[in-house]
Structure formats: C-alpha cells, structure tokens
Amino acid sequence: MHNLLEFLAKYNHWFVFVILEVVSFVLLFQYNSYQGSVWFSSANAVTGKLYEWDSNVETFFSLTKVNQELTQRNAYLEQQVQQLSEKLTDATKDSTFAQRSQMSLLQSYHLIPAKVVANSIDKPGNLMTIDKGRADGVRKDMGVVCGTGVVGIVYLVAEHYSVLIPVLNIKSNISCTIKNRGYFGYLRWKGGPSEYAYMEDVPRHAHFKLGDYVVTSGYSAVFPPGVLVGKVLHVFNSADGLSYRVQLKLSTDFAKLRDVCVIDDAPMRERLELMRAAQDSIKPD
C-alpha cells in the first residue's frame, strides 16, 4: 500500500494531465457540432472495421462445418440429378414407378459427413483415414461417397476414426453398371494413375459407347444404386476373351479429396446382415 501511494504521489502530475485531457476531449466533442460529427464518423468507421474483422475471423473458422454441409448436400443432389436425368430420358416410357421407388429410397439415407485426415494414391494397398468413427455412428462395411461419386468402403472402425478401402486399392471390388444400358460388372483398380480404373466382366454381347456413364448397381448391399463411378474411356478384351474390360475415367479426384460422407442406411444394413447370415448358413461343416 505504501508503494502504491508513493507511486501515485511521484507521478500525480501525469494522472492530472490525463484526466484533464479526457475532460477536454469530452467537452470539445460534446459541445461542438463539427468536432462531434467528426468523432462520430471516425468512431463508426473504426467500429465497422472491427466488426468486419470479427465477421471474417468467424467465417474462416466456420469453413470446416460449411464444407461438411456442402459435401453432404452435394451427395444428395448427385443422387437426385441422377434420378431426374433418367426420368427425363425415359419420359415416353412407363418407368415412373421405378423412379418414384428410388426417390423414396433416397429419402431414407442418412449421410455422416467426415473429413479425410490421411490418404495415399500411389500404393497397391492404398488406405484412407477419416475423422469419424464408432462414436459418430460409423460401422464396418458402410459405403463412402463424396459430392462427385464413389470413394470406398469402411474397413476398420475405432471410436473417433475409421480406415477405408478406397477404390484405389487392388482389393476393392464394387458392383457397378453402365447407366441406361443395364450391363453389370465389377469396379477394380490395378495400380497406375489415380484417375483411372477398370470395369471387369462386362458381357461380350453388351452394347454401349465411349463416354457412357458408369454408376453403382445397388447389388453390393453397400452402395445404393445410381452413385456415379466414372465414364467409359476405352474398351478391351479380357484375358480369356470371354468378356470386356472397360477402362473408366473416375469421377472422384482422389488426389484432392478432403470431404466425404459415410452412407448410414438401415435397409442396406439389413440386406448386408441377411447376406452374411446366408453365407454362414451354407458354409461346409
């Protein structure tokens, strides 16, 4: 206390000066219209700039959430565009019932947005890690998509993280079909550039053309039908000559992939469990 009083006594003239300055500024701006208007304008400009900075900072830190919401919405829109496009193409045919059925099925999907935290694209056994796990509702064998198409399948699940087998893995095997053609095959990656993969086991009698789109078939009990995979670039004969091997340009850019969605769908999960039960029941003793 003694030191405080000594300090105030030593610098009392500075405190008096500051107080007088404050009083003089108050009197100046309060009782002089011109100076008051200048102060008001300057104060508003400074306050506005501070609010602008605060808004920019808040917007920056909310970008992650915005990106997740956009990715989830893009996945929904991708499906809806797919269905509406097919409905428009077949407008003169009686296929509206099937279209309505698929649209009603889409409404039951629950997408869990996630962010890619680790990814590789140059190895035969590429894996991908996302920042959502068991605590977020992610389970093994769930399909994963992004706003532009198929990504992969959940392989291992921890409490807050999951590991995926992406399309760019030689063990990946996803059932797909050539859009509007009705021919099925299996999506496989044999290594090489990350933007290309192959649709194997396409029947020799299949009729399609370069540029046709390939989508998921819905037969795998992991992905719903109609999720975009890529488009046809080239057609080759299989090694045994009994089928076609179709090279695809993948719709998903795995080198830039950041935001994805895990498909959590009860009917698909029930189908998968039923298929597993059936496989177990026919295993030899």
TrEMBL record:
One of its GO terms (cellular component) is plasma membrane. The keyword Signal does not apply. The chain crosses the membrane at residues 12-31. The keyword Transmembrane applies. InterPro entries: Cell/Rod_1, Cell/Rod_MreC_2, MreC, MreC_beta-barrel_core. Residues 67-94 form a coiled coil. Residues 116-263 form the Rod shape-determining protein MreC beta-barrel core domain. Signal peptide: none annotated. Keywords: Cell shape, Coiled coil, Membrane, Transmembrane, Transmembrane helix. Pfam families: MreC. One of its GO terms (biological process) is regulation of cell shape. Belongs to the MreC family. PANTHER family: CELL SHAPE-DETERMINING PROTEIN MREC. This is Cell shape-determining protein MreC. It comes from Segatella hominis.
